[in-house]
Amino acid sequence: DTFLSVEECRDILKEVDAAGYHDSLMWSGDPNNNVLWRNSSSFLCQDADVGYPLCERYPAITKLRKRMASVLQVNLEHGDGMAILRYLTGGYYVYHHDYIPESSLPTTFRNCGPRAMTFMVYLTASEEDGGGETHFLQLGLKVQPKQGRAIVWPDTRAESPLDKDD
């Protein structure tokens, strides 16, 4: 619950607010039922110049990424960058899996393979009326946002790390 301090969360948010968010609406792409899967804003940075700002330009984000890499015991080069999402009232992301197949992001996949783990940090707390939780349907578990709280989960199978973990 205290992976980041309140001050560290504020520093990251200041960097992202200064850099700017972009809309991250995501549609299902199904021509028969093209529904909105995600309604949020995003800030993205990468380790290589692939059209997004370089993460190293942001000291607070760099500090966070190094701490995450240390906990996971992986090098930053083996990650797929950083996404910081902002959900306003009414924002959402429907149930989805964080596994990234090669067909979805071929450049990222060539660098690090499928996303093996997701490491998520809440930079703000939920509002008084609740909401904002991360729901793991198959586990029947809801994690409430708490500023500085980190959660980590696998996206691939331990015995077969290229395969999606349902």
Structural commentary:
By secondary structure, the protein is α+β, with helices and mostly antiparallel strands. It has a single domain (6-164), classed as Jelly Rolls (Sandwich). 21% of the residues lie in helices and 26% in strands. The protein has three helices and twelve strands. The chain has a three-stranded antiparallel sheet, with no helix packed on it. Strand 2 and strand 3 (36-39) form a beta hairpin. Helix 1 crosses helix 2. The longest helix has 14 residues, at 6-19. The radius of gyration is 16 Å and the shape is globular.
What does the secondary structure layout of this molecule look like, with pairings?
Elements: H1 6-19, E1 22-23, E2 26-27, E3 36-39, E4 41-45, H2 59-72, E5 82-86, E6 92-93, H3 106-112, E7 117-121, E8 134-136, E9 141-143, E10 150-154, E11 156-157, E12 160-164
Short key terms for the protein model shown above:
166 residues, alpha+beta, Jelly Rolls, 3-stranded antiparallel sheet, 3 helices, 26% strand, L-ascorbic acid binding, Pro_4_hyd_alph_FE2OG_OXY
Task: Provide a short characterization of the protein structure.
With 166 residues, the protein is an alpha+beta fold.
DSSP E strands, number? 12
Binned strand content: 25-35%
Mean pLDDT value: 81
Which strand order does the major sheet show? 1-4-5
